[in-house]
Design a protein that fits this description.
1 helix, about 190 residues, 4-stranded antiparallel sheet, elongated, Immunoglobulin-like, 12 strands, mainly beta, 3 domains, 3-stranded antiparallel sheet, about 35% strand
């Protein structure tokens, strides 16, 4: 039997509804056990194992919040569901996740870092960093994911000299001063 919200009826005798009441309790425990510790468990009964959010749709997709509420939800950003937090009183939503975060090594032996790496800070900043090899004056690097860069800086690896980094949209043009080409570390912040 499956869950029946019409059981028991006010006119039902206990023996008539008993099977369906038993089935209802089993169905509720089974549904509750998805993403939660089971109701029949003695330890951590009812606690969450995980949270699964359905993507908000509509216009606007951000839920309304009162002065005493906050909301945690997902909505699509470039077709990908991302996690958001909306403060009380319908304040501006804050994106908490970002798609395709790439960091670390692309190979271990020998250790080779990804040439472009980025991470995400809520609020809505994207922090990029990486190592670029054989950079000549005027080399343009377009960062991905696309954002409007607010800051960029570069340092020559293992050598003296200065690098000028000029930002435009989501790209950086590097101008190493002196000997070219150079290997460099770069750091940028966008939103």
């Amino acid at each position: 039997m499956s869950y029946n919200s019409n059981i028991p009826l006010g006119t039902d005798a206990m023996t008539i509804s008993q099977g369906q009441i038993y089935s209802n309790y089993n169905a509720m425990n089974s549904v509750w056990s998805q993403n939660h510790v089971s109701l029949t468990s003695l330890a951590n009964q009812g606690m969450h194992n995980s949270l699964t959010f359905r993507e908000q749709t509509g216009s606007p997709p951000d839920p309304n919040t009162s002065a005493t509420q906050v909301s945690l939800y997902t909505k699509a950003v470039s077709g990908i569901p991302e996690l958001f937090f909306r403060p009380n009183s319908n304040q501006t939503p804050i994106q908490l996740t970002y798609p395709s975060i790439q960091t670390g090594l692309q190979t271990i032996t020998p250790p080779v870092y990804y040439p472009q790496q980025y991470t995400f800070m809520a609020g809505p900043f994207v922090v990029y960093g990486g190592v670029l090899n054989a950079v000549s004056s005027g080399t343009v690097v377009v960062l991905s994911p696309t954002s409007t860069l607010l800051y960029a800086q570069a340092t020559i690896i293992g050598g003296a000299g200065k690098v000028i980094a000029v930002i435009s949209g989501s790209s950086i043009t590097f101008y190493p001063q002196g000997v070219n080409p150079v290997n460099l570390y770069y750091f940028a912040v966008g939103k």
